[in-house]
Structures are given as structure tokens and as C-alpha cells.
Amino acid sequence: MIISELYSRALIEPADAADRLYAVSGYASAAFARRHIKDLLDKGRVTEVNLIVGMPGQRNDHVAFKELHAEFAGKFKGYYYNRTPPVHSKVYGWYNGDKDVSGFAGSANYSQYGFFENQQRNQLSIEDPKLIKTLFDSLLADSIYIPLVVIEPPPGHPREGEEGVVQPGGLLWEVPDTRVRISFLSKDGTLPQVSGLNWGQRLERRVLPDGTETFLQREKNQTYLSLKGDSRKDGFLPPRAIRFTLVTDDGKSFDCVRAQDGDKAIHTTDDNSILGRYLRSRLGVPDGGVVTKEDLVRYGRTDFTIEKLDDETFLLDLSVKH
Q1: Torsional sign, CA 171, 175, 176, 179
Q2: Residue (of 251, 265, 260, 222) closest to 315 by Cα position
Q3: 249 has pLDDT over 70
Q4: How far apart are CA 299 and CA 290, in angstroms?
Q5: Residues 60, 152: Cα–Cα separation, whole Å
Q6: What is the mean pLDDT of residues 174-194?
Q7: Which of these, 46, 150, 183, 287, is most buried using a 10 Å CB contact count?
Q8: What's the pTM value of the predicted model, to 2 decimals?
Q9: Which H helix or E strand runs over 180?
Q10: For helices 62-71 and 30-42, angle between their N-to-C axes, nearest 10 degrees
Q11: What is the DSSP string of 42-108?
Q12: Beta pairing partners, 244
């Protein structure tokens, strides 16, 4: 029985001898799937991940699962099981072409909370990969290919431009521990010029090999969402080591982490300019441009809403009433 280092031993090391994974998991998260595929690619493994999600649910991160198929074309194929009773299995079978290599079964869902023991304690045992592939194939006929599924994005909670409801530099819990509105503004009512939405506008200090200093311009779209007050508290957003999916009220998704001293910011995992480009486009600000308070007021709100949909999926809500 395997009770430690589940991720490495069951989902990374087997790829040394295999080129495809067949997984059936009752629950799964897009954030974990992306992390897994990226880790395999970073380690030089050329692997195809085939996943059947066996249990019904709200599919909060559906848009992120769909986007994985575009981002990792040919390396990820996901399906939702669509019959009753649902499937609660957690099995992982590795193959090299048509040759079975290794297999695992146990209590670990295909999610970060399933595979990292500082979040949950799970176990896996060695299993016959041929039996896992047989189970996968038997369920596939009753499963729907994720890119073909149409699910509406989580609904937003439109706001009018009532700037005074959330005080500058403050926050308002609309649903305790679940949905919070956070001001983009500083306590003095201004919008920071070299942090938050405008993080990419600042110069970055670099020390050269000869010991001299230089200052380089950041990519001007770089942006982070500033977490204020007790929006940083444990139990709301995931801890720093856990990636999560940030879906938007207009149907986009971003792979994110908490970052900076005090875990005070939300970053997009690979490149903070990804979030910055999206926000500038939505606010009507040119690519790479400085975001001003006037831009926010013109858009219709000077705050943003973060809502917890599940442990690894959150809603970024910037909706306004028309």
C-alpha cells in the first residue's frame, strides 16, 4: 500500500516507461489536471492523459476543462460519465502504446486535495492496469467528450456603480467565508500606479554579474488581484501551494495561485500578464496601458468579487447592471 508521495509515485514516475494514462475518478479538478500535465511536460515526459469524471456535480470548472483540450491538444482528453448509477472509482492505469505498464487504485481523487497528503490522507495500492483499461473502456461508451458539453458559466451578481458600498481599501463579505467584494482602490481612494492592476508599470531592480544595478521595465500588462483584510484567512482561498481555477462571469478561466508576502495576492500561475490582458480588455483599457480610477468608474465598479464555488474553483465576478 502506498500512503506517501502519491503524486510522484503514481502520476509522475510511471511516465518514465509509459506514454499514456487512463484514469477514472469520481471527482476531478481542472487545476490539478493542468498541474499534472505541466509537470509531466516539464520533466520531458510525452504523455497523453485520458480522464473520465465519474460523479455528477455542478461542473464549476467546466470552462477550464474545455480550455485544457485547446492548451494541451493531443495530450489531454476528458469525459463526463453520463449514466446512473454514478462512478466513484479512483483508478489510474499506465500504458506504453498497447502495452500495459502499471496501475494504481485507492481513495485519491484526481485533484490536489486527493494527491497531496498535507490536504487529505489517502492511499493507493498496486492494481492490474489491464483491468483499469477494461473499466475505462466500458465507461467510455456512456461518457460525453468534455468539449462537446455546453454548461453556462457560474452566474455573476451584477453591481451598479455604487462606489461607496465597499470603502476604498476595504472589503465586504456578501456571504460569510464564501463571497467577498474587495476594493481595487487604496485607502486614500486612489488606484495604485505600480501595483495591483498596474503591477507591470513599475521598474524591476536587477543586479548584474559585476555587482552593478539596473532597472528593467516589466511586461506592462502584468497584474495581480490584491487580497485585503480577512479575505486572506485560512479556509477561504486555498493555501499557497495549491493551484486553483478562477472562472469569470463572462466565461473565461485562469490557472491561479496565492503569492507575495502574507499571501496577499492572486497571480495567474504562468504569467501575470495573462490576467492583465483580460482585465484591460474588459475595462476598455489599451493593451499595456495604465489603468486609472476613471477607467473603473466608467466601467461601472471600483471593486471585484471573489466567490468560492468549491475547494479548487473560484468565481471572479466583475458584472455590472446595464
Answers
A1: negative
A2: 251
A3: yes
A4: 15
A5: 9
A6: 95
A7: 183
A8: 0.89
A9: strand 179-183
A10: 20
A11: HTT---EEEEEE-S----TTHHHHHHHHHHTTTTEEEEEE-SSS----EEEEEEETTEEEEEEEES-
A12: 256
